[in-house]
Design a protein that fits this description.
heterotetramer, A mainly alpha (780), B mainly alpha (99), C mainly alpha (513), D mainly alpha (511), A: mainly alpha, 3-stranded antiparallel β-sheet, two-stranded antiparallel sheet, 33 helices, 66% helix, disordered N terminus, D: 511 residues, mainly alpha, two-stranded antiparallel ribbon, globular
Chain lengths: 780, 99, 513, 511
């Protein structure tokens, strides 16, 4: 459909453009590239990696182009005009009256995430060129990375839930392949299995949710929009139409959110994410920090109306999403304190940042949450790549901060700088990007009436600052230790990480040959292929926040303009689908604060509404200062403690956990990750995989299969004729069970065949006599 | 009418014959019991023929007598055969095959 | 149902061509194994060629109609005629059987299982092919029954002669189970015949008049058919023959069994039981659905308890067919489309898995999961193929398996008219959980077999390293079509759905749409 | 003591006697066979030992020659030829059955010839007895009178007794003969008693006359019931229906294999002929008496036969039990033959079943004979690995077994199918019950048929010697005929059904 063909008096035609129209190419390119890499990758000079990088670059170009044109589109619209998403869809397959489409749904949100994904993927692939050089499965690695990007991009611009699901699952598969990249080691493949399986459990929710939404919404959407019940746009409109039965949509929202919990590593399904660090560092930075794990968040943002209505977000007080988000923030932040593995620290921090996003979405702070996706992507990717760079060039592929790092700020200045920038951004220090997103979230959460969770958010900010400081201190300050001190050999690094993070040794032997050289001399700065992405990312980590710098007034809130959908009613001309040709009916704009606005969950009088009316907290420097203070407090305390503990090894602190019982218990609890894994693996999984399955199998073999056996046995005992045949029958197990039964009957009948002539005669006549008698009686 | 007595006689003979077949272990005796049954049949037939005043009964009876003779011939032959091989005519010894 | 008569010789040729090959082989002197193989190969290729020609001639715009219909006198005395034809439902399965047979023949060219006897082996293969193809084209109950039974003996011998340790037990068990089912099915057919006025056995006729039978009677007749088909599927309580048969059968046997034979049962449901006895079907649907989901969970649990790779795959068949039956039990055209797709997809995927299992057995001389490890390092290609099938089998979107599984689950959300929604929604959730378990056991299997470092201790002392060769040419030739099929159907499911849909719609017209 | 006028009366009756006109064309088959057997008997006296193989040729050609008048009769436009005012009738039914008897007799001769040549047998008598027994069967098909039925029965039985005891030195054979004889005579005696009662209540031995009067109800119904049961028992014994089957296994095992083949096919068929004729022409109105009787008989027969067959180790004995249970399937439709509409289909099913069963079972015996030439053993296990050294025999045996088990597309299935069909056509609940029993039995049956297949295909050769089996020409011919027939009947059931459909019994009360 051509979106430019809009005739409307009130309405300025929306600008569009080639890139917007052809945004669907963005995922297609990597998909093709993946196929090529698989087919001819090995024969190429760079083992197929060039294909991956090129495809990602071109996707990035397309995405940026689309972004640019989207901005034009939004600018071309009037202030209160609904900026229609650019939707194209083709029928994919049709069955039983169902029409499964495939197509693109381009609006601010999808553009934003598209750009992020394409950008990070590009950088990470470039980074990997160096980082994985000489790896055994170099080509496979790039193939998987590319496929992942393809899947993620497809999911992001999906116009219906089926395509969305497809991308979602493909990401899951790729994460399985990439985590298990070094599958020779059992731990890695088990981590991969765990990740896939945990996420898969969540996916049940996705399946159920999609089905429910489809059947609940389909009639309405078909009638009003001529869209199938899978179409994201249709679902959103339906959710806000006031039609839906509240319980149905509530269950659907919960079901979908379960999927998000699994994918975005929210409590209680977060346990897979830290283990996923077993994968190569680029994978961790791409999939498990900046892109894939935000898919869950993206789903919530994408189908926001469903959650908005289903979970009654405007109601305030508390709902599933904020609760889960809040819990996640705190517990994972707490976990980050006891990790010695730098990547695990980052992993837990990722989990808690995702918690922030969920918190924001749950509390109606849609824009800040989405914005946090954006900013978080940059600084977290940067941090991971930094960690990778350290292990790559300084600590002989170990990630253990306490053992193999320390004092690296001198040897790796670049890495250090970028790390510091990103850390500050993560902590949300004022001019850095983190501040503008995270602080906004906390602020709006409070503003929308979720005060308790605002406090949780602040606590989280404090903890974040604290554990990041600890990590930074351990890594870059103090005295060089272990490998980074240059006197570490491989045997050492091998047995250092036996229990939980043995991937390190794999970094080692996988890219072994490539690093023999570097083992000779000690820690040093990494090569350009690694540092350049670091620098780019750190620049963005600093600056990206200004895209929506609320403190500096309306004019700076570009994101609000570009990304946030405007919640006005659109009168559809249903005969010519597509909201591009939509009329504005001028309505009083809903006033701030009244959540039951015309586009809230109340039934609008006329027209259709695609986005809920959202509130925005007015920025107050006071609150900002307050949170700043908290952050700095966290940094300071943690700094002091770290110095005392790690450098001065102050006797009052060292072994404190051993001395004070409470702390000891807490420490133990944290080290054991709240025993959640124990619960899952030892209790749940075991109980399914072993007893239940055993029982089922036993049932199969002994009850069902043996039913006839049993019958046969009992009959035999009763008649007691052929107990000796049993063994034969069972041993040469040729005779079917029922045959066994009938056979034993046969044995019971055999004596009639005694071979005695007189008995035969007797039988013959008596039978005849009896028959005659009976029939005579019957017939007279 | 005195038909019933004859029929009764026939029935009694039939029962005797059946008893003989079932109870006797001696092959020759079995043959004889069978002959008794056949004769009971003959008596029946003749009685009925007389009662109904038709000749079919007599004809049937004649046939039976003739055939019975043939049967006995064959039967005794078989018994003789058995006796030659097993030196006994007790049919209970003829239970090689069973089950 | 109106029918298209033109070139109605096609189907008969396609069905009975293999018998020509059999006769040829019979005439050959015993010694020449090579020429026997050659004949088998040529025959199956020719058969497939005819099949493809049929597909070309097939008018896809009228997929709902019976096409190439031939209606000859056969047993006029008992009102049964040689009535054959294909519509959108039959055609894909008809072709599937031909493709699978050809691939199996190719695979067998250098994999004739012990104890040799290629002549007998290939003859049985071809007889099987005739039986399978015939079942899918038969439009007369008696004809259907004949073909349905015709596959029994060859499979019986294939398991019993070329099978594993327990082969004789497995084969007899397989046979008696199936025969028991079909005996009751025959009685049901006859009852149907007489209750519809003893006019004809032709399915179209019965579809027109079957609805008129009283409901209780329908339920009983349906029960007879149910047993017959459910044993073949196999559905939950009747499945115990399957693991034995699959585990003991030679690779080729397992492949055909999984790829085509199991489909005869589900096809029977769609083609015969549902349209002829609609109101009985409505009564039965919840129970069928219930057994189906039990089968899904049960099969998955069975898989988790296995230590033998092949047996695990066999149990996974129980689970997958559970999804198919769930789709059928919804009595919606959507669900049945899903079921039909699931049948084809399961045919390709599980068939492929059994091929892989066979090759693993051949190389490692064991199927004990615990004894195999690091296949990816020893035989990367085989490992990747195995992984591909695993992913397809656990219903990864973009591969064929998904389009059978997901729509089936989806359709259970609102079943056809007159069915209890709550019950089926419960089924839906359980089935969705089933997908998780599927992921669990398949990945678990894959992780332990393909990942990790090779174990060279003990078990393969007698499997020297030249035996651990990667995929051979024959295997490539035999497997590539399946792999491509899995991928293509996954990306363009409409290829099949567009064919099924019209026919399914017509089939369901008995239920008022 | 007869009074004078009665005697007078008899004389008058005798005086009015006129010689019946004899339709020689109608009697031609019997006459040919009769001539043939006289020829054999006479030649046997004068022919010297070395030429006696000619006797088998002669007798086989006699049977083929007898087929010619059967065909001409079938083609002649006179549908029904009735002699001796309806006591001896040549109708389609009898023609079809005559054809069956002649052909199966021919196959039996093919089976016997090589068997009889070896071992010291009294060849001439063998052929003579075989032919005379066949002659009795031919008569049975046409008899429509109690007397002629009785005579025919004895005519076909007495030679059979002697054939069963044929191996004079072999005690088993003697035992077989004696058992068969004693029980047979006993059964026929019981039957005769029943016949006498029939004659008494109806004052006629002509079936058609009896038909009008014998009913399940009304005056004398008790006597009717008694009579009908006793008469039926006589033939139930012949078809070895449980519980009158006890002789069959022992006799079959003991008798020489070709004789067993003959007994299990031809004489069983003769019994069914008699039953059908009686049921359709003599007791059409008494269905209340015989329907339940046949129901029970058929259920018992197929079940007991099956479960006992499962236990057998001796192939012939196993076949004996299998043929018993097959008999149950033949009886199945008769259990509803009295109901409206199912009479014709029941007759058709019985005839068809007998035709197909005859071909298949003869084939089985042909294979058994061929194999036992090598293995010299009657054990089922002696078939082990047959496929590996005699694939042709193995495949044929498999075909026959599958056909007996009723697996499409072999002859057996259509026979079973038609039986089920005609049974269910009555649509009574009894019919469905019996059908279920039958269905289950047809599954159980595979237990032992499949066992033989298993031996042939999946078991090693017991004594490891895999020398080829030399099959004499006659045996090969028999094998060819039977296997081809089995396949044809299965794949083109119309062929068998055509003959079965022709067979209508003249004078049968059609419902």
């Amino acid at each position: 459909m051509n979106l430019l063909a809009s005739e409307s008096e009130v309405l300025a035609p929306l600008a569009s453009g080639w890139f917007l129209e052809h945004a669907w190419l963005i995922p297609v390119i990597p998909a093709i590239a993946f196929a090529l890499i698989i087919l001819i990758g090995k024969r190429l000079p760079m083992k197929g990696s060039e294909l991956g990088v090129l495809s990602m670059l071109s996707s990035l170009v397309f995405a940026l182009g689309a972004g640019y044109q989207w901005i034009q589109r939004t600018n071309s619209a009037t202030e209160e005009q609904f900026v229609a998403p650019v939707i194209k869809s083709w029928s994919w397959w049709r069955s039983g009256g169902f029409d499964f489409g495939i197509g693109q749904h381009i609006d601010g949100l999808s553009i934003l995430v598209l750009i992020v994904v394409a950008f990070i993927s590009t950088l990470v692939q470039i980074y990997s060129l160096e980082y994985l050089r000489g790896d055994r499965r170099y080509t496979h690695f790039f193939a998987a990375l590319t496929l992942f990007s393809g899947g993620m991009l497809a999911m992001v611009l999906a116009d219906n839930m089926i395509l969305f699901l497809l991308g979602w699952e493909i990401m899951g598969l790729c994460s399985f392949m990439l985590i298990g990249h070094w599958w020779e080691e059992d731990a890695n493949s088990r981590a991969a299995l765990k990740a896939f399986f945990t996420v898969r459990i969540g996916d049940v929710g996705l399946l159920v949710g999609i089905s429910m939404l489809y059947f609940a919404a389909n009639d309405w959407t078909q009638e009003n929009l001529e869209l199938s019940g899978f179409s994201i746009r249709g679902i959103s409109a339906w959710a806000l139409s006031g039609e839906p039965n509240s319980t149905v949509i509530m269950i659907a929202a919960v079901a979908l959110f379960i999927a998000c919990i699994g994918k975005s590593g929210q409590f209680p399904l977060h346990t897979w994410l830290p283990d996923a660090m077993a994968g190569p560092t680029p994978v961790s930075s791409l999939l498990h920090s900046s892109t894939m794990v935000v898919a869950g968040v993206y789903l919530v943002a994408r189908l926001y109306p469903v959650f908005y209505v289903g979970l009654d977000i405007p109601g305030g007080g508390g709902n599933l999403i904020v609760i889960i988000g809040g819990i996640t923030i705190v517990i994972s932040a707490a976990l980050a304190f006891v990790q010695n593995d730098i990547k695990r620290v980052l992993a837990y921090s990722t989990v808690s940042q995702l918690g922030y996003m969920m918190l924001g979405l749950g509390a109606g702070a849609w824009l800040p949450a989405v914005f946090h996706i954006f900013t978080h992507a940059f600084f977290k990717a940067c941090l991971f790549l930094g960690a990778g760079s350290i292990s790559h060039s300084a600590s002989h592929h170990s990630f253990d901060m306490k053992r193999d790092m320390g004092g690296l700020r001198k040897v790796m200045p670049l890495t250090f700088t970028t790390w510091i920038i990103s850390t500050l951004a993560l902590c949300g220090v004022f001019p850095f990007s983190g501040f503008f997103s995270k602080d906004e979230i906390i602020d709006n959460v409070g503003y929308n009436g979720y005060n308790l969770f605002m406090i949780i958010g602040l606590v989280g900010a404090f903890m974040t600052a604290a554990y990041m400081t600890r990590a930074t201190y351990l890594t870059f300050f103090g005295e060089p230790r272990g490998a980074s001190a240059g006197h570490a050999d491989h045997g050492d690094t091998h047995d250092t990480h036996d229990s939980h993070n043995s991937h390190a040794s794999h970094d080692a032997h996988s890219s072994h040959n490539a690093h023999d050289v570097e083992q000779s001399h000690g820690p040093h700065e990494s090569g350009l292929l690694i540092t350049v992405p670091l620098m780019i990312l750190s620049v963005l980590a600093f600056s990206s926040g200004f895209l929506n710098a609320t403190p500096f007034g309306e004019s700076w809130e570009r994101m609000k303009l570009w990304v946030e959908p405007r919640s006005v009613e659109v009168v559809e001309e249903t005969h010519s689908g597509g909201p591009g040709e939509s009329l504005i009916i001028t309505l009083p704009i809903a006033k701030e604060g009244q959540s039951k606005s015309v586009c809230g969950s109340a039934q609008p009088e006329t027209g259709i509404c695609y986005a809920p009316q959202l509130n925005h907290a007015p920025f107050k420097w006071l609150k900002a200062m307050m949170s700043m203070a908290i952050v700095f407090l966290g940094i300071a305390i943690s700094w002091i403690l770290s110095t005392l503990l790690f450098t001065k090894s102050d006797p009052r602190l060292v072994g404190l956990t051993q001395r004070v019982k409470i702390l000891g218990l807490g420490h133990k609890l944290l080290v054991n990750k709240y025993y959640l894994d124990v619960l899952y693996e030892k209790v749940i999984v075991r109980s399914i995989a072993y007893p239940v399955a055993r029982a089922a199998y036993w049932f199969n073999q002994n009850i069902l299969d043996g039913l006839l056996h049993g019958l046969a046995n009992s009959t035999r005992r009763i008649s007691g004729w052929v107990y000796k045949n049993v063994d034969q029958l069972v041993v040469d197990g040729t005779v079917n069970n029922s045959a066994t039964l009938t056979k034993s009957l046969g044995t019971a009948a055999q004596p009639t065949q005694s071979g005695k002539l007189s008995q035969y005669a007797a039988l013959l006549f008596s039978a005849a006599a009896v028959a005659a008698l009976v029939l005579v009686i019957i017939n007279t | 009418m005195f038909v019933n007595q004859f029929l009764l006689l026939g029935a009694i003979l039939f029962c005797i014959g059946v008893y003989g077949v079932v109870a006797r272990k001696n092959a020759v005796l079995m043959l004889m019991s069978i002959e008794i049954i056949l004769n009971s049949v003959n008596i029946n037939l003749l009685t009925f023929a007389l009662r109904n005043g038709s000749t079919d009964g007599h004809v049937f009876a004649l046939y039976i007598i003739a055939v019975a003779a043939a049967e006995v011939g064959v039967g005794l032959g078989l018994v003789l055969l058995v006796y030659r091989n097993k030196k006994t005519i007790s049919i209970d010894d003829l239970s090689e095959m069973r089950g | 149902m109106n029918m298209l008569q033109e070139n109605n010789w096609l189907l008969s040729v396609g069905t009975f061509l293999p018998m020509v090959g059999v006769v040829l082989m019979m005439l050959m002197p015993k010694a020449q194994d090579q020429s026997v193989k050659l004949v088998a190969l040529i025959t199956s290729i020719a058969t497939l060629a005819v099949g493809i020609y049929t597909a070309f001639k097939f008018d896809f715009d009228q997929a709902e109609k019976m096409q190439f219909v031939a209606n000859e006198k056969w047993i006029s005395v008992i009102k049964s005629s040689y009535l054959i034809g294909v519509d959108g439902i039959s055609l894909p399965l008809y072709l599937l059987s031909m493709v699978i047979t050809l691939l199996v023949v190719i695979y067998s060219l250098d994999h004739v299982p012990s104890p040799g006897k290629p002549k007998a082996f290939f003859s049985l293969l071809l007889v099987l092919q005739t039986g399978m193809a015939g079942t899918f084209i038969a439009q007369d109950l008696i004809l259907f029954f004949v073909f349905f039974e015709l596959v029994l003996l060859p499979m019986f011998f294939m398991i019993g002669v070329w099978g594993g340790e327990q082969r004789q037990y497995a084969s007899i068990k397989f046979f008696l189970y199936t025969m028991f089912g079909s005996a009751l099915m025959l009685v049901a057919f006859l009852a149907l015949f007489f209750k519809t006025g003893a006019e004809s056995f032709s399915i179209p006729y019965l579809i027109e008049n079957g609805g008129s039978i009283g409901k209780n009677l329908q339920i009983w007749i349906f029960a007879g058919m149910f047993v017959g088909f459910a044993v073949k599927v196999p559905m939950f309580p009747f499945h115990t023959w399957l693991p034995d048969a699959h585990t003991q059968a030679p690779t080729q046997g397992s492949v055909i069994l999984a790829a085509v034979l199991l489909k005869l049962g589900t096809y029977g449901f769609v083609r015969i039981a549902l349209p002829i006895l609609p109101s009985a079907a409505r009564e039965w649907a919840p129970y069928i659905g219930g057994l189906a989901v039990i089968g899904i969970i049960y099969g998955a649990l069975g898989c988790l308890a296995q230590t033998d790779m092949k047996r695990l795959i066999a149990f996974s068949s129980v689970a997958h067919m559970g999804f198919v039956m769930l789709g059928i039990s919804t009595l919606t055209s959507f669900g049945i489309n899903a079921a039909m797709f699931g049948m084809v997809a399961h045919g390709l995927i599980t068939g492929m898995l059994f091929f892989v299992a066979g090759s693993v057995k051949e190389r490692y001389h064991t199927l004990e999961i615990s004894k195999i490890s690091g296949m990816l390092t020893q035989m990367p290609h085989l490992g990747w193929i195995f992984g591909f099938c695993t992913m397809a089998s656990l219903g990864l979107p973009g591969l064929a398996g998904f389009w059978g599984e997901f729509p089936a689950i989806l359709s259970a959300y609102n079943p056809g008219a007159g069915l209890n929604e709550t019950v089926f929604r419960v089924f839906m959730v359980i089935a969705a959980l089933g997908t998780v378990l599927a992921a669990a056991y398949l990945l678990w299997l894959y992780q332990r077999i393909a990942f990790g470092t090779p174990k060279n201790s003990g078990h393969d002392s007698h499997s020297t390293h030249d035996e651990l060769h990667d995929v051979t040419t024959y295997e490539w030739v035999a497997w590539t079509p399946l792999l491509i099929g899995i991928l293509v159907l996954g990306i363009v499911p409409n290829l099949l759905f567009s064919v099924f849909d019209p026919a399914v719609q017509v089939t369901l017209s008995a239920f008022g749409g | 003591m007869l009074s004078g006028d009665k005697l007078q009366n008899l004389n008058v009756l005798a005086a009015q006697w006129v010689a019946p006109t004899i339709d020689y064309h109608g009697l031609a088959p019997e006459l040919v066979v009769a001539g043939g057997l006289c020829l054999v008997l006479i030649l046997d006296l004068f022919m010297d030992e070395r030429k006696k193989w000619l006797l088998s040729v002669i007798s086989s050609f006699t049977l083929l020659a007898a087929m010619i008048p059967v065909l001409t009769l079938a083609l002649s436009d006179v549908q029904v030829r009735s002699m001796f005012d309806g006591r001896y009738v040549v109708d389609n039914f009898s023609l079809v059955m005559k054809g069956l008897f002649l052909l199966s007799g021919y196959v039996v001769i093919l089976l016997s010839s090589s068997h009889v040549e070896e071992g010291e047998y009294w060849r001439g008598e063998y052929w003579f007895l075989l032919l005379s027994s066949l002659l009795g069967m031919l008569m049975m098909t046409s008899s429509r009178d109690l007397v002629s039925i009785f005579v025919a029965l004895e005519f076909l039985s007495i030679p059979a007794y002697m054939l069963a005891a044929w191996r004079k030195r072999d005690t088993k054979s003697n035992e077989a003969g004696v058992k068969y004889f004693m029980l047979g005579v006993f059964a026929s005696a019981v039957m005769l008693y029943g016949m006498s009662l029939l004659y008494g209540v109806t004052n006629s031995t002509l079936l058609v006359d009896i038909a009008a009067q014998v009913t399940g109800t009304g005056e004398f119904s008790a006597v009717h019931a008694l009579a009908v049961v006793f008469v039926v028992v006589g033939f139930a014994f012949k078809v070895s229906a449980v519980p009158f089957h006890t002789w069959a296994p022992d006799t079959y095992e003991g008798a020489p294999a070709p004789v067993t083949a003959f007994l299990s096919v031809a004489s069983k068929a003769a019994g069914f002929v008699a039953i059908v004729v009686l049921v359709y022409t003599a007791f059409p109105l008494a269905q209340d008496i015989w329907q339940p009787f046949f129901w029970v008989l058929s259920a018992l027969t197929m079940t007991v036969g099956n479960i006992l067959a499962l236990k057998q180790h001796n192939i012939v004995r196993m076949i004996a039990y299998s043929s018993i249970s097959q008999g149950g399937f033949v009886l199945m439709p008769l259990a509803v033959a009295g109901m409206s509409g199912s009479a014709n289909s029941a007759l058709r099913s019985v005839v068809l079943y007998m035709i197909i069963y005859a071909t298949t079972n003869l084939g089985v015996f042909a294979v058994i004979l061929a194999v036992s030439r090598k293995t010299r053993s009657g054990e089922i296990s002696s078939f082990g690995g047959l496929f590996s050294y005699a694939p042709a025999l193995g495949v044929m045996m498999t075909l026959f077994m599958a056909s007996l088990a009723g697996i499409p597309p072999l002859g057996g299935w259509i026979a079973k199918f038609v039986a089920f069909q005609s049974l269910l056509s009555s649509q009574s609940s009894w019919a469905y019950a019996l059908a279920i029993i039958g269905a289950v039995n047809s599954v159980i049956a595979f237990g032992y048929y499949g066992n033989v297949m298993r031996e042939i295909w999946m078991r090693p050769v017991p004594d490891g010697d895999i020398t080829q089996i030399k099959i004499p020409g006659s045996l090969a011919l028999a094998l060819g005929i039977t296997s081809v027939a089995t396949l044809v009947f299965g794949i083109f059931p119309a062929v068998g059904l055509h003959f079965a459909d022709l067979a209508e019994i003249a004078g049968a009360l059609s419902r």
